[in-house]
Write a structure and sequence with these properties.
By secondary structure, this protein is of the alpha+beta class. It is about 50% helix and about 10% strand. It starts with a helix and ends with a helix.
Length: about 550
């Protein structure tokens, strides 16, 4: 951490109830507040917020943390970005803390350049009859123009470049912005006589642009090159607009183009996004996975669209997503279909979306090849329960025995990995073992940490998640705090810590007795293992020593 004082000061000025209430409707429940979890779909509230402890925890999905953790997860930010956002909300100047944000001064200037260009493009669209007429012909409403901040790049070769220079931006920085390119006589505007689609990060900052020719110019579509701000393989168009609806519906529709997305939103389908002229990547899914694990692919039914759907669906299942496919009539994309047929017809198509198995088995070509392709996707699926369901579905619809399909799958990928620790921290059935109770004691009474670590053999801690947490906090046991723990722990660790903060698992009134009892039991478990080993080897001298040590343990702690 750059500054513990900074974190404490932010927390002193911002109440977690007020922060989370900006995103979720909280209702009073005893000393705490509850709501339907914003991170997974549920009907009964399991998301709890403690004003006394300034933490949140969902007993359904296991998400937990403090205000920083909530903002990171909800807004898809890293830790430093969350600090920056909350510091601004709290009215704190980071410069006073000598805080070095992840976003460098250079990046800040690049964002300023993109914002300046955006303002010019938007103003150009207001003035351009040609661009306005084009949008009218495409059926795009004024509401959508404003919602997506659509713009227009004029026909001039150096319009944006000269404006940025006049605003005082350095030429080397302008050259890195993606808004210009280098020619024989210097720098020229990247976009000319094109409808402009601004590309925003999840927080709503313009970072790149897409341009569509409104005449016969080629290429038809042109995107900003990659810059320090913009990575095509990690950016999804309209995710900043669609994220709340995606969470609400717990699934996302992925289309292929800008106008497909905009027309879907215009017709009420506001959980639609698109990659940026590139195939779906693991980087895209990393961003998307924070909002949902369910995907509906809405692609063209031509050869390229089917190939893209096949590649995408394989990648989705490999990364733990559940996916269906909607193929529109040949010659149609979401944009044209909605303009010609309307939202009701589109909804009817959505209800007939194909499962992965139906889609793969329905592809043209050899049935055996299609079955093998489906087996490969099933084999790569990391969710064990889903994997079982897919094997059954594939067997039923292909007519091939499940055992044969499973035999075929042995040549594909690896068995899915599962985290026992994660299950322990998230499950509805929760076992408070002695090591978990000791962690709980530290969470509720940080001042007890030195005593616990002085009397605990770390090798005796059986729960791997607890052991990992202990290893993280032991070096600074004399100054353990909830803020410190949550700043250094991973998601699984934070989930367990916040759960224990809200559900300690023991009587807080007699904490010292509880701690000694846990330490005593752990010591007994350890000595019993050693006694068992001594008996099996016939080492009588060691056995006598261990039995004597066992008697002392009761009084030692």
């Amino acid at each position: 951490m750059k500054s513990d004082r900074l974190l404490d000061d932010i927390k002193s000025r911002l109440d977690i109830i007020e922060v989370i209430s900006d995103y979720v409707e909280l209702k009073k429940s005893g000393q705490n507040y509850k709501a339907n979890c914003p991170f997974h779909s549920e009907k009964s509230p399991s998301f709890m917020v403690s004003p006394a402890k300034q933490i949140f925890h969902c007993f359904g999905c296991g998400a937990g943390g403090d205000i920083f953790g909530f903002i990171m997860k909800y807004e898809n930010l890293n830790f430093q970005e969350a600090i920056k956002m909350l510091a601004k909300k709290a009215g704190i100047k980071l410069s006073e803390y000598r805080f070095e944000a992840d976003i460098s001064e250079k990046k800040e200037k690049l964002y300023a350049i993109q914002k300046e260009a955006l303002n010019i493009y938007v103003e150009n669209l207001r003035k351009s009859k040609t661009a306005g007429s084009y949008l009218a012909k495409r059926g795009i409403t004024g509401e959508m123009i404003e919602a997506f901040s659509l713009g227009y790049a004029d026909k001039e070769w150096k319009s944006i470049y000269e404006h940025l220079k006049a605003k005082g931006f350095d030429e080397p920085l302008i050259a890195q912005s993606g808004l210009v390119f280098s020619g024989e006589k210097g720098l020229y505007d990247m976009f000319r006589n094109r409808l402009i689609f601004p590309i925003f990060n999840v927080q709503g900052d313009a970072m790149a642009f897409g341009g569509r020719a409104i005449d016969d110019s080629m290429p038809k579509y042109l995107n900003s090159p990659e810059t320090p701000l913009f990575k095509k393989g990690e950016t999804l168009y309209a995710l900043n607009i669609a994220k709340d609806e995606i969470r609400k519906k717990d699934y996302v529709m992925i289309a292929e183009g800008y106008l497909d997305v905009i027309m879907c939103h215009q017709h009420g389908f506001r959980n639609v996004i698109a990659p940026l002229g590139t195939a779906l990547t693991a980087g895209h899914l990393h961003k998307l996975g924070r909002f949902t694990k369910k995907v509906l692919l809405v692609f063209d039914s031509d050869t390229a669209g089917i190939a893209a759907a096949k590649r995408s669906i394989a990648l989705l299942f490999e990364h733990g997503f559940k996916s269906k496919v909607l193929l529109l009539p040949e010659g149609d994309d979401p944009d044209s279909f909605l303009r010609q047929n309307g939202s009701k017809a589109f909804q009817g198509r959505l209800s007939k979306s194909k499962t992965m198995v139906d889609f793969i088995l329905g592809l043209k070509g050899d049935k055996t090849d299609n079955v093998r392709a489906a087996v490969g996707i099933v084999a790569s699926t990391k969710d064990l329960i889903l994997r079982e369901e897919l094997f059954r579905e594939l067997s039923e619809k292909s007519g091939i025995r499940e055992a044969v399909l499973r035999g075929e799958s042995k040549g594909y990928g690896q068995e899915p990995r599962h985290s026992i620790a994660a299950a322990a921290s998230k499950g509805t059935t929760f076992f408070y073992s002695e090591d978990i109770l000791l962690l709980s004691a530290i969470v509720s009474f940080p001042d007890k940490a030195p005593y616990i670590f002085d009397n605990l053999n770390m090798d005796s801690v059986r729960n791997p998640l607890v052991k990992k947490i202990f290893q993280e906090i032991k070096p600074s046991a004399d100054k353990v705090s909830m803020t410190e723990m949550l700043s250094v722990l991973g998601e699984e660790e934070k989930a367990l810590v916040t759960r224990l903060s809200l559900s300690p698992g023991f009587d807080l009134e007699d904490i010292d007795k509880s701690i000694k009892g846990c330490l005593r039991k752990i010591a007994h478990y350890e000595i019993e293992e050693k006694i068992k080993e001594a008996k099996s080897t016939g080492d009588r001298q060691r056995l006598r020593s261990l039995l004597a040590e066992k008697q002392k343990i009761t009084r030692a702690v």
